[in-house]
Design goal:
With about 350 residues, the protein is of the alpha+beta class. It is built from ten helices and 19 strands. The radius of gyration is 25 Å and the shape is elongated. About 35% of the residues are buried. It binds adenosine-5'-diphosphate and magnesium ion. Adenosine-5'-diphosphate (ADP) binds next to strand 8, strand 14 and strand 15.
Length: about 350
């Protein structure tokens, strides 16, 4: 089975690709910067360096929010033919903090009270009636950049004016008292593969490691695990990181990361998180293919039952040492017996095998 990791080429993507080599028969590392998506009357296509993307069994699309539209477009084209750990709709949702919260709320995943205002006048009104401190953050910030705390209406107003100057979408959020800690959980399907608690540096509220936070291994309660898994499922992200704030007995999900860095959490937990993800991708791809194959198989059988003696099955060419191998299910359904005399009608990109 073939895997492609489309990413910005960061260390975590490289580690996942590297670990995947012991599972997949081939692993291609592709730069998201070299990808284009074309759509015409004849259909849609993903290209890499100007050439059509060859078929893959699994395509793991990573990279920052700046590529959200491209990531979604790639996935829209490949979806239904390829196992994608991130659904096309994961990208617009997961890369935007406010849309993430809206989606999570639909599935009763607890989130902090958050506001998104369409104009500065209504944002000011929200600030007038807020309980301080509050959090103001950019909808697309990462690694703690773009998260600000305001402890009074006057400081909130000056942050608001600055945000307006930069013309960046932002959200206003209730402040959750956590003693400057957060919980980062890596989810793969219905399993938590790693979790750490991060403590912010002195006089800092943001617990991100990039802001000086320190991560330690953490064993989440089954309730927190369930919340993280549900959050990932709500965004249709089979593999992602979930950031959680815990305050007393309350738990809140603040964001999902579709392309999480793995260095910090691997160091804190001493787990090989990249390997866990690689093995998950492999098992899922296998399950996806088996499911798809059985669907195709059923379609094929119903074609025969209907008296329609030929049917088309979509599969990948399996060429080993110059020998074309036909999938077992197709060989079986054809009814050919060993040594039977057949005619090969071969043309460019075409092969028909029929009985003499
Ligand atoms: N509502 C909040 N209350 C308290 N702390 C928060 C809140 N939102 C964010 N933080 C702190 O800021 C950090 C970064 O916020 P987050 O929303 O995860 O953005 P980023 O994408 O930059 O990581 C969190 O890990 C947490 O420590
Ligand atoms: Mg975060």
């Amino acid at each position: 089975m073939k895997l492609a990791v489309i990413s910005l080429g960061g260390q975590s993507s490289k580690s996942i690709a590297e670990e995947s080599r012991s599972y997949f028969s081939s692993v291609s590392e592709l730069s998201i910067r070299s990808i284009e998506v074309h759509t015409t009357l004849n259909g849609s296509q993903v290209l890499c360096d100007g050439e059509p993307l060859p078929p893959f069994d699994c395509v793991y699309v990573r990279g920052s929010y700046k590529y959200a539209l491209l990531q979604q477009a790639i996935s829209e084209v490949l979806y239904k033919k390829t196992y994608l750990p991130l659904h096309p709709s994961s990208f617009p949702l997961g890369h935007n903090k406010f849309l993430t919260l809206l989606e999570l709320q639909k599935y009763n995943v607890p989130v902090p009270a958050s506001y998104f205002a369409g104009n500065i006048k209504s944002a000011r009104k929200v600030l007038e009636s807020a309980h301080y401190p509050i959090i103001m953050k950019l909808s697309t910030g990462t690694q703690g950049v773009g998260v600000m705390m305001a402890d009074s209406v006057s400081s909130a107003r000056s942050i608001l004016d600055t945000l307006e100057v930069f013309n960046q979408p932002y959200l206003i959020q209730e402040y959750i008292e956590t003693n400057a800690t957060d919980i980062r959980i890596i989810v793969a399907g219905d399993k938590v593969v790693a979790a750490m608690k991060r403590k912010a540096a002195h006089s800092e509220i943001r617990a991100n490691i990039h802001q000086g936070g320190v991560g330690v291994a953490f064993t989440p309660s089954s309730d927190i695990e369930e919340i993280a898994i549900k959050a990932a499922a709500a965004i249709k992200a089979d593999v992602c990181a979930v950031d959680i704030l815990e305050s007393g007995k309350k738990t809140y999900v603040i964001e999902l990361n579709l392309s999480p860095g793995l260095e910090g959490i691997s160091k804190a937990t001493k787990a090989n998180v990249a390997k866990e993800i690689a093995s998950y991708l492999f098992l899922q791809t296998k399950a996806y293919k088996a499911h798809k194959i059985s669907q195709d198989y059923n379609k094929f059988l119903s074609g025969i039952d209907n008296g329609n003696h030929t049917s088309q099955i979509v599969s990948h060419v399996d060429l080993k040492a110059g020998i074309l191998r036909i999938p077992e299910r197709i060989s079986k359904l054809s009814g050919f017996r060993s040594d039977e005399e057949v005619i090969y009608s071969v043309g460019k990109k075409k092969l028909v095998i029929s009985k003499t």
